[in-house]
Amino acid sequence: KRRLDQRFAHAVLHCRDPVTANSLILNGLALEHTKLAARKDKKEPVRCAKCQLWGHIAANCLALRDTCAQCGDNHRSNSCTNQSKAHCASCNSDTHASWDRDCPVADRKRRELDAKYPENALPLYSTAGNW
């Protein structure tokens, strides 16, 4: 746990073959008497942690100032004191934050990746070919 109030965590499992991976996705995994859900690891679009825009990472960002992923103001996201305000730098909307997966720009970027990598859109791994 990172914090005492942490309720969720994520783990990445690597399987030796697609049949095993698909079985985990379909049936889940039992750990400490708890059934855990599994999902396929998909390619996700890259969003900059500095300017909150798509297609590059903070190390390559040309923005002069940080943009908060929550409120959109010019400060680092981890120092935001205005958690009740939401602003998305990608679509310039005040209805959600930049990190929101329901952002229409984020959705478009995910669809673009799915078109580029068709296997990305499939719920299971292909069992044909090399693993």
UniProtKB/TrEMBL annotation:
Origin: domain of life: Eukaryota
Name of the molecule in the record: CCHC-type domain-containing protein
